[in-house]
Structures are given as C-alpha cells and as structure tokens.
C-alpha cells in the first residue's frame, strides 16, 4: 500500500524555479496504475521547459519522462499488470503523471516488465530515447522511415544499405545505432566525440566521424565511406538547424532524414523526404506501435541485443535534479544519462 504523502520536485511557475515539496500521492483511476518511481532519467526537454516556457501551461508542474519502478497499486479494469511488477514507461507533464516524484500515475501500453538482469537506473534510459529511435526507423511516413520492423518482420531486412546517425553518443543516437545494426544496415556512420568511438562501434557503428569536424569534412568522409551519390537514410538525433542542414545535404536525390526537433531545413528539393519523429507513446498515432514496442522489446533487452545507456546517478534524490538539468543545459554531459532516485529524497 502506498503512503498518502510523497516528495515531488515542482516547477513552481512558468520560467520559475524547481523546488521539492510534500504533496499527496495520487490514486489510480480506471485503466491506470500507480508506480513507485525508483529511477527517473533527465532529458534536455526538462530544462527547456523551464527556460523557454514551452509545452506546459499549468503550474506548479511535475516534469520527468523516463520512469522505472514498481507497480504499487492497480486501478479498475487493468489487465496485464500486477502489484510488484518492475516496469519502465513514459511519464507525461502533469502533476500526477510526471516522473520527478516518488509515485506517479500511468497508463501502460502492453507488458512493460523490466528484465531481472537490468537495474532500475538502466531501465530509466529506455522509455523516451529507445522509443524515439524505434519510431524514426520503423514507423510509416511521415513519422519515420517505415523500414521493415525488427519486432515483426525479423532482422537484417536492410542489409546492403547505409545510414548516417548524427549524434551517435546521445540518448536517441545510441539506440538508433543498436536498432540499425539489428535491422541489418551494412554501413552505419555516426558523428560523435572520438573519445566515444570504441563504445559506439560496440553498439553497431561501423565508422565514427569527429563531431567537431566541419560540415565539408563530414560530407567528404561520408561520400568516401558510403559512395558519392549520397545516403538514403540520415537520422539526426541532435536536430539543431546546423545538423539538420548537414543531414539533408548528405541525402541522395530520393533520400530520407528523420528529425527529433522541428524542421528548420532550408533549400528543400523535390524527392528528398523529411520525417518529424514525435517519440511519445501518449500520442494516439503512436499507440499501436507503442503496444508492440512494450510487449516485445523486453526480450531484446534481456538477451543483451539492446543495451541501456551508461548512467550517472545524481546525489540527494529529487533535490539533485536541478543541478543535473543545469549541466545538461551547459552541455557538460557527454556519453552518459543522468538519473535520479526519488526514493532517496529526504
């Protein structure tokens, strides 16, 4: 039985400060579960909501999208989940469903059990990053490339093809590399800090290009590695205007690019496709793939085919999150996912 009170990290107002407060533990309604949050991972969107006032309109607000924990209570009509199940899932930006608190409400898409060989910290790296990578590769246009889905159609269906992953050491990029390897891409080129090269190759990259190289140097290297007519697929896991333009210019005449931020590409030409990936399971258009993802992805994790990101656990539970968000904003985190443990809050 869950307690009646809990600690939650609240964004107190639009453009306001974060602070830990004592709040009520919510009760699950029909079709919902209450999750005891053991680990919650930080994402850049969390500091952007605070700094730019985006996405959230009602305050105080609980943020946090990457949740791993235990089912503590089950609402009416819930099937496929029981008290004590170890689950990972996406939180949404409401006071009852955000992950920056000790207990959160959720609607589960399929069976989301964490394999026993995966810790809560590791599992919290999956919900947003892995699902975004999965959608970008396998969802039909305009949400993604529409490649043969490894969870349905089997592996290695993209053999003989090349893909460029811009930002391979980031949260989404690491999972794109792994899924592209399972999909059978013969050439997987990524940009990243070269200190991460060996690790990214272990995930599936065949070539790593220095992220600090000029656009001209990256284009020349990709041309040398994949052929001079451009590549058919670019997954821009960074998606700032500069990388979007670079990725678009790398495409073949009928190539496709997947973006994780709004399209800022200039000088578009007929034939090239741009996909805007919206990696939220709560979006109705994503429900069908979300159910499939959560039902089947666990076996790949358990078998070691999909590896979690390297994690860094923040001190002081929820109280450690604001400093972690500042580090993300200041680009002081590389190759690791920051994770907080709400149950360690005072």
Give the structural class: alpha/beta
User: How is the main sheet built?
Assistant: 6 strands, mixed
Which CATH class of the largest domain? Alpha Beta
| Low-confidence runs | none
What is the third-level CATH name, the topology of the largest domain? Quinone Oxidoreductase, Chain A, domain 1
Approximate helicity band: 25-40%
Number of beta strands: 14
Q: What spatial form do the alpha-carbon principal axes imply?
A: globular
- Could you give me the name of the CATH homologous superfamily of the largest domain? Medium-chain alcohol dehydrogenases, catalytic domain
State the helix count.
9
The proportion of residues in beta strands is 15-25%
* Average residue-wise pLDDT: 94
Can you summarize this structure?
GO terms for molecular function: oxidoreductase activity, acting on NAD(P)H. The chain has 2 domains: 5-128 and 281-340, Medium-chain alcohol dehydrogenases, catalytic domain (Quinone Oxidoreductase, Chain A, domain 1, Alpha-Beta Complex); 140-276, Rossmann fold.
